[in-house]
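Researcher: Here's the sequence for the chain we discussed earlier.
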Amino acid sequence: MSGLRVYSTSVTGSREIKSQQSEVTRILDGKRIQYQLVDISQDNALRDEMRALAGNPKATPPQIVNGDQYCGVWAGGGGGSVGRELW
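Model: Thanks. This is the structure I predict for it:
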């Protein structure tokens, strides 16, 4: 797979996850960076794929991948671990 992918979920009771997902997409949109939003709530295989790429069996969205290279989890603030990879 190629291109930037943001693994997210449309079904969550976590205010923190919703907020982090919104911030990631807001920043990417603001910088006009093209990405594919992958909704892991649609298929358990997508959740498993996200966790395998993250190397963490308990990873939660949002997770960011560029091609097959894991870029990081959103940590908020100044871009978290993603800042060095994308912006």
